[in-house]
Amino acid sequence: MREERLMKEIALWRISRLFDLAAHSTEENGKESPAIARRYVILARKISTHYKVKIPPGIKNRMCKECNSILLPGLNCRVRIASNGFLVYICDCGSQKKIHLTKKSVMPKNMAQGKNRQK
Ligand SMILES: [Zn+2]
User: Fold this and answer.
1) Which end of the chain has less Cβ packing within 10 Å, N or C?
2) Ligand 1 ion local residues (Cβ < 5 A)
């Protein structure tokens, strides 16, 4: 029981580390060579299915399901705000990811609490 919890903790750490590596390599190489970043995303998905660990929403919202790339606005995706309260990430591959704006996972903590608002 305790070992299983430890394995899941390690799996979560590995997923977040792979996400960081994928984001870093995508930022460095841009559209030139996303293959290694895609490989990191595929590995993170495999780890989450093998150890039955949910990918944290902050990470999952930044992954494209179709082409397994990390969504970085301005580099490989466009961001639109839909009128019905959804944030839409449009990947270069053409797929769309809709995220509801009221979810806490989308907004940073200080913005969700209203500390960053200007008066
Ligand atoms: Zn895509």
Assistant:
1) C
2) 64, 66-67, 91, 93, 95
Query: Mean pLDDT across the stretch 92-99?
Result: 91
Residues 69, 73, 78, 79, CA torsion sign: positive
What pLDDT, in 10s, does the model give residues 30-74?
Answer: 666 678 999 999 999 999 999 999 999 889 999 999 999 999 998
φ/ψ region of 50 (left if φ > 0, alpha if ψ in -120 to 50, else beta) reads: alpha
Residue 16: both structure tokens together: 């977040």
The domains located in the chain, with CATH, are 2-112 (1.20.5.420)
Task: Quote the ligand 1 centre to 114 CA distance (angstroms).
Answer: 32
Residues 25 and 39: their CA atoms lie apart, in Å, by 11
Tell me how far the alpha carbon of residue 66 lies from the centroid of ligand 1, in angstroms.
5
Tokens of 33: 């060579």
Q: What is the mean pLDDT of residues 6-33?
A: 88
pTM: 0.77
